[in-house]
Amino acid sequence: QGNLSLLSSEQIELAKMLLEMGQSHLFQHWPEPGVDDDEKKSFFDQVARLNANYPGGLVSYIKNARELLADSKEGKNPFDGFTPSVPTGEVLTFGDDNFMKFEETGIQEVGDAAFVLVAGGLGERLGYNGIKVALPSETTNGTCFLQHYIESILALQEASNRLRGGENQREIPFAIMTSDDTHKRTLELLESNDYFGMKPTQVKLLKQEKVACLDDNDARLAVDPHNKYKIQTKPHGHGDVHSLLYSSGLLNSWFDAGLKWVLFFQDTNGLLFKAIPASLGVSSIRKFHVNSLAVPRKAKEAIGGIAKLTHADGRSMVINVEYNQLDPLLRATGHPDGDVNDETGYSPFPGNINQLILELGPYIEELKKTGGAIKEFVNPKYKDASKTAFKSSTRLECMMQDYPKTLPPTARVGFTVMDTWLAYAPVKNNPEDAAKLPKGNPYHSATSGEMAIYRANNLILRKAGVQIDDPVNQQFNGQEVEVWSRITWKPKWAVTYSEVKRKVTGNCSISQRSTMLINGRNISLEDLSLDGALLVSSVDDTEVKVGGSIHNKGWVLENVDYKDSSVPEEIRIRGFRINKVEQLEKNYSEPGKNKLEP
Ligand code: UGB
């Protein structure tokens, strides 16, 4: 009681609210006034923040937690009454006429899009010490994920502006959701690299706040074990992105600027942008309010499955069912074997890669109703079968792909399935865990993520007519991967397959042991035969034709062990490093027409 005199009137209101919500334990250990007064005030600063950052404040948070904890204790299935079935969506085959049509439309639309990267996660499964967006996506160039994303958005912007002509030029907005774990380092990465060529005003960082931890089924808030004047907090999940976009006013400002689409993506997928133009084209042509990008998925693989859920009362929705829930749901609804591969070798439920494309108008309308609150879940680890005590504190969580759960049945929710090799190769698992995965399941490691970039570039060039050697199988950090020639290009060289096709002519061939880095807008390959390493870069207004027979010792992959701490972490987690023995390197810095021949 005596402590009340220390508090402002708002703080007294917060204290009353906590007491009414059964949180008196938070104050039980508080000493008399005069002792730790500053700490007591800072406790209320934190309570005010927690209250402001949750739709409906702490009262709603505690109420929601009690309901969800009661459901969890009862073992209530969140999908009770729903039967899953395989939904229909748009299935694309890279490079065919259909794909090209969608890609063309996507480029027309992309100037009306904003991009949102969710990058607040620490990546516990990966165990990397830095932020994940600072990791090199591949090590021939060393381009980090964030740089690759920004260069991709800028290349899309340029392709779209070329179509739009003079007056209607766009700067595509880019928002990044960070958290206390990643905010400072993300900002530093951007600032120390001049925003990788993007205008700083184009980039907006939105920091998500953590939520209060819960100690028991009554949703008593947990006191931080290291500081008795602090409530313990943990991340709330990537679903926060919706309320942040809404409350920051960004969505309305995008709408007022005439934008039509919002594209969400995750922190470590080096392939994603190869799939974006076509999938945006699908959204536009199929008039999808929500379009989830998906890939064929191995049963039990740790990515969510997209399913159609039909309720006994007739309702139905197309939604992601998280990987730990799909198998039990299937078992409970007449599929005794649960989530299993069918004759195609894949689960019939396409895998959610958490790339969402939302139509901005209907999205804002929905958020006006919900404030961006997303259906949450709770995942307490109980001490024993009585389910009365937790092993450690828990909290409510939410996922961005659960956005459609509140939509009316009239909403057009669809999905687009792409070839995995084209669209999805995230870096989520540490080398040790990756090596232990069942054979045939993707590793999702730094090793496989990098190799997937080379494979995709090889397959794209092969489709465009280049003679490409088959890969060889090699082991790195205990993972067997296909090693294709190390081909990379900057997004400004080509953001669509049709652009690649335009830039490759004649009889070109590239051997498996080769490395090729293309860094320039107007570089074309014509009758090139490459066996070794070739690095070509040029300024924008220069044309370069690359041809002839190029042969040198090239760049060689050498094994390193992930436990070898003398090697930088970014390198050793992939299990190899590149020994740059010999290369042909040309840089064209003057405007003009050039021919590169050996
Ligand atoms: N993230 C945040 O920004 N904030 C947070 O609080 C948490 C995460 P994970 P997850 O692609 O294979 C998702 O940890 O959540 C960001 C889908 O739910 O990499 O286990 C974080 O920075 C699942 O359906 O993945 O699983 C990262 O960019 C499946 O599609 C992103 O959110 C799976 O991804 C995802 O976080 C997948």
3D structure, described in words:
By secondary structure, the protein is α/β, with parallel strands linked by helices. It contains 16 helices and 31 strands. The strands form 9 sheets. An 8-stranded mixed beta sheet has the order 2-17-10-13-9-3-4-5, with helices on both faces. Strands 18, 22, 23, 25, 27 and 31 form a 6-stranded parallel beta sheet that branches. A 4-stranded parallel beta sheet has the order 21-24-26-30. Helix 4 packs across helix 9. The longest helix is centred in the N-terminal third of the chain and has 20 residues. The protein is globular and about 85 Å long. It starts with 8 loop residues before the first helix and ends with a strand. The mean pLDDT is 94. Bound molecules: ligand UGB. Ligand UGB binds next to strand 4 and strand 13.
Main β sheet profile: 8 strands, mixed
- Tell me the number of helical segments per DSSP (H or I, 4 or more residues long): 16
Which small-molecule species are bound to the chains here?
ligand UGB
Query: How many β-strand stretches?
Result: 31
Estimated helix fraction: 25-40%
Beta-strand residue percentage: 25-35%
**Average pLDDT, all residues:** 94
- Estimated radius of gyration: 26 Å
Strand order of the largest sheet: 2-17-10-13-9-3-4-5
Provide a concise account of the structure shown.
With 598 residues, the protein is α/β, with parallel strands linked by helices.
